[in-house]
Structure formats: C-alpha cells, structure tokens
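To assess whether the prediction recovers the assembly geometry, we first specified each molecular entity separately, as shown.
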Amino acid sequence: MLVLLALPPLVIALGQPFYLDLVRRIMILAIAAVSLNLILGYGGLVSFGHAAYLGIGAYAVGILGFYGVTNGWIQWAVAITASALVALAIGAVSIRTSGIYFIMITLAFTQMLYYLGISIAEFGGDDGMRLNAKSQFAGLVDLNDPVAFYYVVLLLMLLAVFLTYKIVKSRFGMVLRATKSNEARSRAIGFSPYPYRLAAFVIAGAMCGLAGALYANHTNYITPGLMSWQQSGDIMFMVILGGMASTAGPVLGAFALLLVEDLLSGWTQHWQVILGPLLILSVIFFRRGLAGVLYKPDA
Amino acid sequence: MLEVKGLTKTFGALRATDAVDLEVQEGETLAVIGPNGAGKTTLISQLAGNLRPDAGRIRFAGEDITSLSAPQRSRKGLARSFQITSVYPEFSALDNVALAVQAHAGHSFRFWREARSDPALIEPARRMLDDVGLSERTNVLAANLAHGEQRQLEVAMALATRPRLLLLDEPMAGMGIEESQRMIAFLATLKRRQTIVLVEHDMDAVFRLADRIAVLVYGRVIATDSPEKIKMNEEVRRAYLGEDA
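The predicted structure of the complete assembly is given in tokenized form:
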C-alpha cells in the first residue's frame, strides 16, 4: 500500500510516467475484480459476465459526455445506477439457475450487451467512441492531472476493498457465505438464498459500474470490447489468482496478472503462449490464491 | 401440533410414501421406525419442505403448510436435522449456531455491523453449544469436529432456531456407543419441553425416548401406538422386529 501511495512522486522523479498509467489501469480493474469477488468468492456465484458492468459504466460516461453532460457526479451516479439496474435484471433471471446454467446465462446476457454495443452506430458501433472530455469535478479534482487521477483511483480501490470487507463480515455477508457453504442447510435453518444472492449481485454490479466509469476516463475511449467474454474471463482470473474469499486477494490478482502480462508482452509478441501455462501452474500450486500464500483467509 | 393426512409421494413405480396419516401432539416425542427403504427420510423431507408431496396435506399449528418452502416452514417453527451430517464445514461451531440464531432474528439485510461481535447472535449460540455439550469446541471449524460432535452441532443448530417442532433424522447415525448414549441422554432432557419427531434405527434409543411410535413399512404406516403396545404388535414384529410369528 505504501508503495502505491509513494509511486507517483517516484515515477515522475524517474521520468517514467508510463508506469503511473499502467498501475492506474491495474487498480481500476482491481475494483472490478474486488466486486466480482463478492459474488464469486463469497457467494459462490460464478458469473462469467462481469465485464458487462464495466461496459455499462464506461458507456454511461461516454454517452452522457456525447450529449454534453460532463458533470462527473452525474456521470458516475448514472454509471453506478445503470449498472445496478442491469445487474438486478440479469440477476433476477440468472440466480434462479445454478451451476453451469448460471455461468452460461450470465455469459449470454453479457454477449447480448456486447453485440448491442457493436450494433449502435451512433455510439461508434464496433469502433467504439471517443470520450470528448473527462468527467468534471469542478474545484475538487481534475482528472486530467494524471497524478490526481491516480490518487482518486487508489482511494476508490481502497474504499471498494473496505466496503467489501465490511459487507462480508456483516449479517448479510454471513448469509451469503453460508448459502455458498451449504445451501440445503441454509434453507433448513430458514434462509431463502435468492434475495440475498440477488442483492449481492446488484452491489457487485454497481461497484463494477464505477470501475467502468473510471476506465472510460482512463482510456478516453470506449469500445464494446470492454464487455467481451475475454474481459469477463480476465476479471475472473484476477479473482481466482489472487484468492477467492479474501477481500484484498483480487487486488493482488489484478496486479500479478496485469504486471506479468505487461512484462511478457514487452518481451515477446507471443506472450499469451507463456501466460497461459503460468496461469494454470499458479492455480495448481496456489490453491487459495496469492492471498493464501501471505495469510490464511477464513471461510 | 402437526397433522398429516393422506401424504403420498412416488418415485416412478415406487410408492415411497403411501397415504400416510400422522398426528403429533404438543410436547410429545413421536418416533418413526421402519426397515431400510421404508421411506422414513422421504417422509421427514416432505414434512420439512425439502420434497413436495404428490398428494395429501400437512397442517402445522393449525395452518396448512403443504405449499410452503423449507425456509418458510423453518421460520414457522419447524426445524430438521439431516441423516447425513449437514453443517457449514468452513465455519466454526459457534458460527454455525450463530447463523441459525440469525436466521430467526429478522431479515439479514444488514450490511455494516460485524455479525461475529453481535451479542444478540453470539450469546444464544454459546448457550446452545453449552446445552449440547460443545462448549469446549466453540472455535473449532465444523469440518474438524469429530463425527459425533458434528451431529451434536446439528441438533444445536436446529434448536437455535427455537422450533416448535423438531424433526430429527437419525441423530445417532454413525455414532459410537458412548456418543449415542450422550445424545440419548441429551434428547431425554428435551422431552416435554420440546415436541419431537424422531426417525431412528437404534431401538434402544427409540424405546427410551418415544411417547408413541409409528411404524413405517413400504411407505405405509402399519401401526401407531405406545412403545409397549408396539412391542407386542404381531404385524410389527413380523414386518420389522424380525421375528416369525
């Protein structure tokens, strides 16, 4: 954490602002991973469509900007609300299923959104859309300043981890984890899993929507690719690599995955050939994820 | 308290529950016995709401609960234990019971306060663990408890929901003699205070605990009577107690 706090002055002193950009991107995706972990790690809901909310958050900012609404508060509030509503709709249907059906339904919904993004020519279609101006927080913070933006992202990432930490330890979190641990037992003692799972699904969607809004500001460019199944897979991988059922694990996973990816891609064009087996090995040897190597996560 | 009429459940050609009528009075312990495959667990599962009957009605505390789900029945005061141990293995014994307390302490859409430091959940849970004799094991993960202790934990969880009717599906299954004796002694302390439907193989336990016994054979109740009369009943002896008449 101290490293993250001290990074901006350091890289600027070293004349390597590229790393600021890289770490900012990693932290944004880490927020997405933290949000997925709430339902995947603690709720046992293997959502293979979490990138949908990244896309909705990003498009909310892009589309509002397109119509001249650049107020950041409004943009981000819309990004979060829209993501929550879509999560409510997708969750309401998919949480009635379980196992492989749940995975496939969440994937299918996200593919629908992906093709929707491709087909709407007004917002760039396949090519994506440019963000004319970053979200405006007049007087408070200027996201055009890379260091300020970096700290905003860092703060929000820490907030996401803290919120998740509080939630999973609350009564709500205990029910969520209990239904993952043993659904039949939960029903027998009087918990109906559905409303709790759905609520968690919506919270995770909203949090990921915020990551999407940040991502749009980060790249200044929004493409449907943000909602692709590869992106969903990446987020899921960060969670698994970092360690499910530990609140900070997904952050470690995001850093590990994206730093290795960056390292390998600088080294060879065929980096994916190396990354794939590395990921498989990491899953085999770190059963509880990277977080499990550092400390022992509880249930 | 509980009234079952014409309950029927078939799996293909098998009539697992065949027009079963049962009545359980407040405060009594009704044992359901029968040979393997007689449909005892199927019956319990229908009472608890895990299985939907094909026909028949279940009334509980004056209310028809036939169409209610398992969680709804639990909240009405019906608790069950499972024949095959069913606890939360990754949680401590205390967490397991605290969750059962929580399930009956209003809704759980509470996102902020830490559940594990909430005395409203932890204190009743501790007391319940004391009652079943697990007070030394509160912080042990349920997965690391001995088999007999897990069974005790299950009973503690069921009791923690403060049920009006407790359904116990072979609570002594897989226990050693000493553990069984302890469990029987504990269940004996519940008598009168707690209405119980007990499915059990162990005849010693059944005759010590039951006020009345229902004998289930091929899904049918062939007799319901006091333990003394059941012991004497010709049909029961032929069908179940394994004696030639």
